[in-house]
Amino acid sequence: MSEEKRTExxxxxxxxxxDKISEEVRIYHPETVKGIGDDAxxxxxxxxxxxxxxxxxxxxxxxxxxxxxxxxxxYKIVAVNVSDIxxxxxxPKQITVNIGLSNRFSLEAVELLYxxxxxxxxxxxxxxxxxxTTASQAGLVLSVTxxxxxxxxxxxxxxxxxKGDILCVTGDLGAAYVGLQVLAREKxxxxxxxxxxxxxxxxxxxxxxxxxxxxxxxxxxxxxDKQIKPTSMIDVSDGxxxxxFHLCKQSGLGAAIYEDKLPIDKEAYETAAxxxxxxxxxxxxxxxxxxxxxxxxxxxxxxxxxxADIHTIGYMQEKEKGKALVTRGxxxxxxxxxxxxHF
Length: 343
Ligand code: ADP
Ligand code: MG
Hints:
Layout: H1 9-23, E1 32-34, E2 41-44, E3 48-58, H2 70-86, E4 91-101, H3 107-124, E5 127-135, E6 141-151, E7 166-170, H4 175-192, H5 204-211, H6 217-225, E8 232-235, H7 240-251, E9 254-258, H8 266-274, H9 279-285, E10 292-296, H10 301-304, E11 310-317, E12 323-326, E13 332-334
Parallel strand pairs: 4-5, 9-12
Antiparallel strand pairs: 1-2, 2-3, 3-6, 4-6, 7-10, 7-11, 8-10, 9-11, 12-13
Helix pairs in contact: 2-3, 4-5, 4-8
The chain binds adenosine-5'-diphosphate (ADP) and magnesium ion.
């Protein structure tokens, strides 16, 4: 073997790898308005814009079938894709579903999976229009591609936040990550003692956040009703801090967020403590909340300030001021983004 250069993917990280791929990509069509780098790609359809996004879930990486019911998995693969369409301020329209199945799966299992897919199609009003089916030697593989549409003047990118804009996040954060810890612990206890019944009642909210994420299309409709167009938007799939980093990087800005403004559900807070986890860390770096993080101009603040499910957590500032976390004690520390590390 020659001494070829070898760079570990783990050293690059997921985002470094995507940057590398996108450097070499050439765009051939003027209709391609936005390629790699946002929650969805954007195409010019003449009167309006079309958006398209794809996401994959792998057994053993993203889910464990010993605690993930197949109906929930079917729902989740659609919801996480629709979430990316919401992050573009667009309306989802069609999906295709690709599945890789090992011979462990029966027709009945596939039917359960598609029960969940159909339930999500109904909830988010999307048409299942195709897909691909193949055998898999690496467990269950699921991937969905979703399209959506949006009027040209309503599209939101990650890159258009302005200095002084207010950072908002919907719902609450960290619960899906805490729910995953509960499920993992129950699995270990079950393996140790198979007669044991899982005791999940007191964790129903956090477990539900992990098993049944909801794409926030309701918020997209409400923002439209209130005539608010976010200046930038992203969905929270990798953890709030990581998403704040994306908005900052692509908008060429810094940000300040306040720890005491992070929306954390009571059950998530208490359960995190039970696992000796810092609830703030769960909110900042736990993944899979599928809430929306967006910026609005200060003049729109009045319109959202009393909204029960939209929380203002900070503001955008000059790049030179960096990304700051104002702690509960009033200290200003650098915001750290751990994100999800699959590599
Ligand atoms: P999200 O978390 O919103 O799903 P990702 O972090 O997965 O977004 O992807 C960020 C951007 O990189 C998107 O524009 C996505 O289409 C693009 N991307 C991710 N993986 C690849 C790949 N293997 N080849 C080309 N583009 C990719
Ligand atoms: Mg996204």
